[in-house]
Amino acid sequence: MASLVVLECDVDNSGAGQPNGITNKLQTLKLRQQESRRVAKARLSQQTNALDLDQGPMELAGSAMPIVRRSSDLRSQMAGKAMQAPVAPSEEFIGSQVYRTPFEEAGSRMSGFTAPDSRPTTSSSARSISSRPSGSRPATSSSNRGGPVARITSQSAERPGSAASMGSLQSQDLAPYEDLGPFLNPDAVLQTVLNSLAAANVAKRLELDWQAQNEAIQDARRLVQHHPEVVEPNLHPLMGVLLPAVDALRSQTAKDALSLLLDMVQAFGRALDPEVEAIVAALVKKAGEMSTAGRETFLAMEASNVLSVMTDLLSVSRVAAALIACSGHKAAPVKYKAALHLDGCLQGTNGQRLSGAQGMLAKVFKAAVQLLDEGREETRVYAKRVLWATAQLSSVTEPGGFDRMLKQLTNEDKRKKIAEFTSSSAGCPPPPNKYTAGATMARSAR
């Protein structure tokens, strides 16, 4: 309860012996004292009446008109809100608000900042805010979905089967491309995608607009999903500007490019056969990337996954020929991945398809013999598996063909060694443990 402290003074009302000026001042002070007491009593009376009516705090209902709510009503409303679900704001309220991302808020606060001895600077986000009329919401489009925060996040949930552990960058995911509708003008969007990716490939490191590059890849995924008839005639130019993104320094860009490649392989299948050589070369290089601890990175696992799907859906003879070319790479991890996926080309129905291609088994045999001399144990194990599968397939398709391949070897010791384990009753050598492979790679790196 507010109270007013009034200074009381003992004043001699007689004014005897005092000059007229002093007497007038004392009378004025006494009148003010009486007025102050009257005001204090009036305020005290108002507060007492408010307590008798059990009135509570005041809340502004509008810009100027206050309303008074009873404290009992407020208590009942608070109890009701605890039992009710939150109510969404009305459309009129939403339309009158201006929504800004944290980056835009920071830009608006920094727009008026002036450093000492420098001209006033305004950020790009602040300029975009000032150019937008008050009371309007920022427009959203396919090229600006989710704001600057959502554009840097991961889309690991977009592709079915992707591991959640690979989504370390996802803080606010973009909407999956399956949930986004088709484009009104897909031909124009495709041309924009080609131009954006081509510009990103030739841009210098500091001048690269990686957000535009990521948005172009996401738009390409939507095109593959909703407009495959537009993308299929342009597979060659699209692949030419997409493959450099697989080797991008920014991991999010590389992962999006790998996801797009997987979508294209699943959507177009054998239509990508003319591009197999370039795709396999880029994927095997990415699959051979190792961390400092000697283990596969999540991008390497994504690239290996795309290679496995390519082996099943595309021409296995073309994939095997591209892997044979990669088996002569200088890097040991790349040779290891080439041997691993070459073994996949010979397993199950893939091996039956490959054995039907004339001369392919002989080429696979020569590449596997070369890989037997590798220093990495896992590469040698996969080379033995390839030779064992080649011997089994040759005995079915061309009896005696594997023996003729062995006779072409000039090294007698290697010939006997290959003949021994390919004819052994133990069967095909088991694949190496992935953890053992990682430890071996770490030891070789040290």
UniProtKB/TrEMBL annotation:
Q: Where is this region: Disordered?
A: 108-169, 422-446
Give an example GO cellular component term for this record: cytoplasmic microtubule
Renumbered to this chain, the Low complexity biased-composition regions fall at 114-139
User: Where do the TOG domain residues begin and end?
Assistant: 182-431
Q: Which domain of life is it from?
A: Eukaryota
Tell me the Pfam families matching this sequence: CLASP_N
Q: Which GO terms describe its biological process?
A: microtubule cytoskeleton organization
SUPFAM superfamilies for the chain: ARM repeat
Q: Where is the signal peptide?
A: none
This chain's source organism reads Symbiochloris irregularis
- What name goes with this protein? TOG domain-containing protein
